[in-house]
Amino acid sequence: MGVLLFIVLLFGQQGWTTEVVPPTDWKLQNLKGAVQRMIVFRTTADGAKEKDVINFKEKGFVMIKTYYDSTSKTYTSFEEGEMEEIYTFTYTDYVDGVRYVYLYDNNRKWEDRDHAIETWDKVDDFLISTRNNNREKWEIECKYKEYKLMERWERESINYQKYSAEIERTSTFEYNKQGDLVKEIIHEEINGIEKDYTLIYDIRSRDAIGNILLQTKRNRETGDVITEQFDYLYYK
Questions:
Q1: Is the distance from CB of 15 to CB of 119 less than 8 angstroms?
Q2: CA dist list (Å): 2 to 5, 126, 156
Q3: Collapsing DSSP states into helix, strand and coil, what is residue 6?
Q4: Which of 50, 134, 163, 218 is the most exposed place for a label (fewest CB within 10 A)?
């Protein structure tokens, strides 16, 4: 799984005021009930397998996210196959509207002492979350309206082994009348090369309280499909 995909699963800001109370991650992820752990098992169009494990505190804020990757083409369930832990994000509690996110590699080492500061602001009808990396390697800004993500802007500088890239991406999101995400429109620039594409979201099934169990994301331009399965553990 690429670094950008990992940090995309994190969200961002633009400045914090004492008037803004950070919403719970349950609310921002549109989760129903008291979710203790959520597992997302993802199969990409080329057959690669990925897994995200997200643990929540009892009040609904993320405590830790761990990302796994596998090249196994036969990995078909949450339990089967060998998954390599890539790295982990740990989250502090909010203090005065600010929280820190620390990045650890798969050896449980604090990777280059990487961390991000997440803050919140309110502009007109939008809640704005901004996450800035302490080494200026990436930043993310997200705009929410009625707790739904409407726009995300992100920038990242990658310099890993023989690969380097300057990436900037803007996504806008559309919802149906039921409030489900149905479309993501993306403008992307990588090393000066621009590209536009659209992802179509299709929810296939939900659990008894309404959380998503299966959904697909189809690239409208290429036809490539990403399949995501979800598994939940709830607080009792």
A1: yes
A2: 5, 30, 12
A3: helix
A4: 163
